[in-house]
Amino acid sequence: MLAALAAVMVMAPGAFAQGTSGAILGTVTDSTGALVPDAKVTALNLDTNAERAGATDALGAFRFQALPIGNYQVAIERPGFSKYVQGPITLTVNQQAELRVTLQVGAVAETVQVSADAPLLNTTTAEVGVRFDERRISELPLTPNRNVLQLALSVAGVSQRAEGQSEFTAGGVAFSVNGMRTRSNNFMIDGQDSNDPSVAGLTQQINNPDIVAEFRLITNQFSPEFGRAAGSVVNIVTKSGTNSYHGSAFWFHNDNHLNSRNNQDKALVSGQPKFAAAPFRIENQFGGTVGGPVLKDRTFFFGSLQRWTDRQLGSGTTINGVPTEAGRQLLQSLAGSRPQVQALLKFLPPAQSPLNLTAPLTVGGRSERIPLGSLSGATSVKFDDWQWSGRGDHRLSGRHQLGGRYLYDNRLSSGSGQATPAGLTNIVPSRRQALTFYLTSTPSPSVVNEFRASWQRFSSTTTAADPSSESIPSIEIPELGLTGFNAATTRTAIGLGVNLPQFRFNNTYQLQNTTSWIRGAHAIKFGLDFRRIDVKSFFFPTIRGLLRYPTLQRFVDDNAEAANINKPLPGGQAIQYYEWDDYFLFIGDEWRALPPDADLWAALGGLWQRPEQPAADEPADHRRRQRRPALRPVSGAQAGRQQSSAALRLQLGAARILLRPARPAHRRRQAGVPRRLLAHQRLRLHQHRAQRGQLLPLRGRHQQQQPGQRLHRAAEPGPHRP
Predict the structure, then answer these.
(1) Does residue 660 lie in a domain region?
(2) Which among 201, 157, 404 is positioned nearest to 302, based on CA atoms?
(3) What's the total number of domains in the chain?
């Protein structure tokens, strides 16, 4: 909903390089310092024998744009001079490897061999960042789970999480750069967008660093093509095959003998620590990679496979105040026919150890003291994950190269979350997929074009181990030690947490095209990036309701101090559908002065981006959801007619852009709003089957609950109502 145009001019060259490539440039002179035009220049990839040819211009300068990262050898020939060869030159992501070449007078058959890399000091861009190559990635510790994002935590200006900021970001590692928000980072894998559209962070987790050729973190002075976020740009490039076969095999092991106890493990239960030693755990990560040629010098492959398993005994919270077996019998005899008491006896097991505590209770003139004790729980945490990848690269001709890459991550986690009482632990299946195809074309030595089409999908569902826990609201009774409403390890209330169950499915479709054009002293680069994001989400906190009773007496009397429910308004729905389009356009021009002032650079760049506001779609029963862009161009006459209903107009030059008016009330999705529960309202989850003993509302007037008034009755058997 916002269009922005920014231009920056600096007296240093801009980094208008491909997100997965680099550039080799330089100036050729003779021994007297005179410029050498029309010299033949060749850049040879030593890994694949791919060759890029060109020539020096009238200023003796040459430049090869959009070269895949790898090891190169540069050869320069000119009649009357000895042939000049320099290499290997290790080209990295976004690097502009600058060479200063001096040709010596001699026969063409003579060769001057220079075994040197390009200077490591970056003197050609204003970009500030850190690069991790294959060796550093393999040698640095990536604890605890070999997530490649752990590399970012070793960079200056990066902190794992800033105080007061949310830790709910995807990717497994939340970090802040230069004081920005943890959600202000931009993530790319092989040039493909990999940002979670809901909570930000890296969508496609990589826990096998052996597939990464380079990890680059840019913390300042981004080039115009890197928009979206102001914190940092994380650029990950995966490995590809070469003319030689190469691979790796690994096995990482962790178990309880290598770990120590945490504070919850040391907590006393009946005067003894909960665990005398570190709880049981066995974790293994094993797999390998392999790559090589299919057709030498033309077709290459690379693949990886990793299996990751983790078995551990998790810690649970101890509840002090749970009725003992004798206390449960008293409750049953006093108020066992009441639905709320039936729910308590069903979902709360008896105390394991008695305490010198009781809770007073009076029902029908009969007074008793309910014996209370402590209840401790632990859970068996299981995690299973398969990660694999495949990549292919094929050189169609000297001017065209085609390739593709696929990443797959399928995991199942169970046993996490609330351990006490039993049955409330989480079951979370999730799957991540990322596919990209690219075509790089060099129609002339001065023009390079890269087209990329990508697709990414994320799916995740979170439910409870015991589905029947969804049949009642979240019920808290602090006197019995039952507290907390959000699903968490520290929660002890009965009924599933108000933020569960939930699920989300994302699809991101992306088209990119980038063109690099060398014209004289100018290196011009421009491109576009189009993204369509589809989200199907169910996240409706408190849709089943929340009840809080300070004491057991008020619980039995059904006299709640807090009773909330959050349901869709009439015409609304619980499952939400979103669809939006993002557009990014950029252009950059890098100019370099003539020798001997070749160190003087100027760069001008502009970025226009239009991130569309997500719009909820039509109800779920529409098989084909209409696509409505948030911004659409209109003519002047149309703008005049629609002015009364327009929310905003933006005028850029002679073009006029109109923001789509809000949908009419009868077609607009209504969001759920929390409100105080009334006596006639229901507290139950819409399920595929009815539950006997469910808590349903008493019929009555639209009035707020009064002290001592019953809020629920037992559900009668009958047909299911959605």
Answers:
(1) yes
(2) 404
(3) 5
